[in-house]
Amino acid sequence: MNRFFNWIKALFNRGMDKLETPDIMLDQARRDMQGALIANREKAVQAITQKNRLQGMLDDTKKKSAELEARAAMALKQGDRELATQFMREKMNNDASVTTLQQSYDGAAATVEQVKVAIKRQEEEVRKKTGEALALKAQWQQAQIQNSITKALDGLTFENQFEGFGAAQEKIRNAQSEASARQEMFGQSIQGKILGMEDKARDMEAESELDKLEERLGLRPAAAPAVDLTQTVSVGGASVPTAAAATTSEAEKQLEELEKRLNSNSQ
Questions:
Q1: Which of 27-36, 45-54, 220-229 has the highest mean pLDDT?
Q2: Which domain holds residue 13?
Q3: CATH number for the domain including 143?
Q4: For the purposes of burial, counting CB atoms within 10 Å of the CB of 13, is it exposed (0-12), middle (13-18) or buried (19 or more)?
Q5: CA–CA separation, 110 vs 103, rounded Å?
Q6: Is 55 helix (H, G, I), strand (E, B) or coil?
Q7: Residue 250 placed within a domain
Q8: CA gyration radius, the chain
Q9: What is the pLDDT of residue 2?
Q10: What total number of domains does the chain contain?
């Protein structure tokens, strides 16, 4: 049972902690100050009312003393000394009341002045505390905003978002490395060597055809000074054209073919 009550108490305290935010506490403190000021003002009004009543009673008592004195004087003028003595006795009793009322009034007047000063100071303090409460509420709101920003920044996660890029880059690197390894192995294999030889042969054929094209178009540089290409050598008593003569003859044939094509195109 004690554990149950402790649990209920803990829940209640937790709820009160959530409810007792600085905003609520400051508003409640301001209401309390305003309520206390209103109550003190009401007390001050009551004290001033009592002071005013004492002042009225004092004025009436003084007026009565003046009337009794006037009646005693009239009785003396009429020669009725006994009646004048009675009026004077009443006046003396009334004067005693005046003295008592005067003391009460003086005390009430002093108290009222003190109350007025206290009320004025309390009003100034309430205004001051109200301004401080507004400043504190602003600070609290600023602190809440800063905490919200901090929590938002704490919740930002960039590493998880870029893990996919890192993983993709790693896979691409692995694939490139594997492709390079396979290409290297393929280049070292017999089939790769055969294909390499075939590529070289095709390159040589392409170079040969390119040379022929340059010769037909006349893009090759001028040949060396002509030499006698009709020289022959004697082999076993027979005349055989030299290699230079054979080359010149082939070149003339190619040139003649080029001239024919150019003439046909121009026509």
A1: 45-54
A2: 2-154
A3: 1.10.287
A4: exposed
A5: 11
A6: helix
A7: no
A8: 65
A9: 64
A10: 1
